[in-house]
Amino acid sequence: MSANSEKERLLYDSEQNFQLLLNIIESVPSRKRTISIETEDRDKNFRDVMMHLYEWHAMLERWYREGMDGDTPIMPAAGYKWSTIKLLNKKIWESYQDITLTQALKKLTLSHARVMSIIQLHTDEEIMTKKYYKWTKTSNLYSYFAANTSKHYAWAIKKCEAIAKSINEAEIKVG
């Protein structure tokens, strides 16, 4: 596929990375998909990664809605600064420990579709022009969209590949 615009490239990369992410999860036998791995990392299973992405979609949707309504969104979230992002991510992790992987996948799939729809609403100029919208300050919509879709999915792919590898290696040792 040749993207004719940055918007098309963003949509394409986001969809490709999202599908790759789902494929990694599906590559693990369904009975093993909820296993948590031994790691020093925050995210120990597929659900943790899915809910992290979901919550960042939810924050992006809030920033977007508030910004487009003429308000100045609190970023990244109330009570947090970009410098305290690790604390915010830990809070996100803690708040979703009772969610099942099935619920997480459903929530993420729906939030992904909503974010893709938001991106579709805009022209290339609106997405790529810095300061086009007051709420993006010195940045552009692209930086917000890419950070919470294609680029975030690339991070999640690495996490999920490590989780899948650990699960599969454990299965080989047991088998």
From TrEMBL:
Pfam families: DUF1706
InterPro entries, sorted: DinB/YfiT-like, DUF1706
Gene3D superfamilies, alphabetized: dinb family like domain (1.20.120.450)
Protein origin, superkingdom: Bacteria
PANTHER family in the cross-refs: HYPOTHETICAL CYTOSOLIC PROTEIN, PTHR40658
The protein's name in its UniProt record: ClbS/DfsB family four-helix bundle protein
